[in-house]
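Section 3.1 - Work completed
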Amino acid sequence: MEVGYVISQLKEFFDLYYKQKISSFNDEILNIDYKEISEFDIELTNYLDNNPIEIQKLFSIAFEDFFKDFDKQVPYICLINLPKDIDKVINKIRKEDMNKLISIRGIIQSRSSVNANITGIKFECPSCGNIICVTQEDELKEPSRCVCGRKGKFRILKKEFEDILFLKIEELPERLNPVESAGSIPIILRKKLCNKDYNFYLGCRIEFIGYITERIRYQRNKKTTICDYVFEANSYNILDYVDFETEITKEEQELYEDIKQHNNPALLISRFIFSGIVGCSRAKQALIYQQFCGKMFNGYRDYIHILLYGMPGTAKTDLAIRVSKINPICKVTSGPDISKVGFTAMVEKDELSGKFVMKAGLLPRCSGGLAVIDEMEKAPEQSISGLHTPMEQGFLGMEKAGISAKIVAETSITATANPKSVEKTSESVGNFKKVSLENCNLPLPILDRFDLIFTFNDHPDTKKDEMIAKKIIYRNSFDSFEDTFEGNENTLSQNQNTFQLKEDTFWHKGNTFHISTLRKYIYLCKKVNPKLSIRVEKTISTWYVNLRQASTFIGYENKRPTPRVVESILRLARAIARSKQKDIVSQKELEMAISYYDFIYDTDNIKNPQVVNVED
């Protein structure tokens, strides 16, 4: 297809679909629907697919006359509504995808500030006055000689600039296999795409439409044969909460109704994902309700932090890893393995642009979701100290290398920690190991920011130990729990109609579901933003006053409860209401939330904290 024919077809297309909109159009960017082009001329879309570099130039030439009639400049053209078959997973980009129109999705990992980029320079020959125009690309170029034969330096008359912004995005976690690492790719945005650069914040989930090009890699200031993939963006689209289909099947709808109508939805869901873990009932339920928390509520954080603290070998890590699988946005790390970027963010020099850029750490990249930190007490002290503001306020400030930024980090944290030492005590029947938060190698201000702290002890319990041994034997003797119970719906230990089959599937009322079904339900519930009823306000104020009075002599781990407890209870109550898709937090949800804190602050449990109870 010749270029002249392409331009004439684009003119005809614009005259048919967009000409009437010019008079009222005043934006800098014009969105062109790809589906409309395809309906108009399928061969035209094929040409654009294989020549994405020419898109801006072709559209500008074709549309110029239309906008001149209204004394307007041709806006920047962005293509939208591209077909799904051109969507590429970052990890699977190959040489066949180069210089073709594609779309990619990811999370913004790092970004630069908006800079000026030289696109062309006009030179004048001092000898003959000849004007030489040189297009600028990766390296600054000057003319080597003039037509008159002159060699040497030429006088610069004019430079042409464009705005340019450098980003790097990594693959969306829900599009990865369990053992697959998230790939990343640099993104270049030019011209009008840079005008709303506030959209490109660290942790933002975004889709880019454009094409893959290459940048030669240098080694010791010499060019090599190895090239890095670079994505030139034509347009972008801010994504919703998660990237998956939300169509609900009949079986899923029935499951969702059962969860929603259950008196304690977390208890039901815990049987889907925690069947292989004995006890820890309250910790399991709290971890599940944590996945239903929001981001911000009336300017205050609505996401929940939970610490699982105690003896090694008490299933803390297993609980944290399993619950992470039902959150659509989640990353898992461990304290000893935390990178140089840490939990928050850092400034580093970008290889592509040579400029200092902000690089997101764990929390910004999980904003709106969950960050699981195993053995948090072993993380570097500098990384731990950076958590104060994001854990409480949902953002972190950066003032480094001339970069001043406010980074969103509205992320829930599930952390595990081990004590520095173990004490021997005989306060109950027989000797058993007891742990205390005084032995936790985490600063008190960080501990105070956790909404719930579950303490795991390890002492003999005949009934519990027997159940644990049976669970381990079953897990090593059968392919799945389905084989273990032979589909017996009356199995009491698996609560009749519900139990976990394999690691990522579960069985409920005769139907087998993948764990992604729960992710979808959480996604739907997070759209609900429940508010407090009037009765709730009086109940919680009375409860807090009584708790403060009682804590004059008794406190949890020798620490008097602070006003943060009230905020924590309200967050948990809203999460419980959200799990039932309710718009109002009733007395029932509040009492359920308070019950978790009554357990923690109960005088008996201060001596012997929970999470060894066998499930109901």
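Second construct:
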Amino acid sequence: MPVTVLGASAGPPRSVNCRASLRPPPAVRALLSVRFFVGDLFGWDQATPSSVSESFAQRLTDKDRARSLAPAGTPDGLFRIVYRFENEQLDEIINRAAHVPLICDLAPTPIVYKRNFLMRGDEFNKEDGAIDFDVVTELVFPDRAAYLAWAAQLSKPGSGERVVADELKFLDRSRTRAYVVEECVTSG
């Protein structure tokens, strides 16, 4: 019987979210969707050792770094903060796709490895303020034994430390949780 694992995780808690009430218009969302799809297809957004370390934050002066209301590199939705001044903020995109290749390099790829990012502010999210996660990851394995073998591969010495180090770059591990669920599909 297939085993499905759902995990919810979030970046570090923050008191300011400048984008909470801003939602791009449908045309912009559509263009971004196309861009990310094509980028995924051609591997444009896969991190390289040099791209992970490159950041506009490295170009900040000491004065601007001290003036910023949030530390450079702080996750902010799909972005990370370069600086946040009183009336101005500069963000850069976080390459979340870089984590998946690491996991797939360390352990066999699950049947399904899907990330569903929360659309904050969407009218269908009835209790949006109470939602304490940014993404739900869905992993599907052929059976429980395959899941346990996968988890063991990621936990073995050397691998476990690499996974933790990578996750600390973009999520708050104390707020991550995982559940095994039973999938029931109704079709018409």
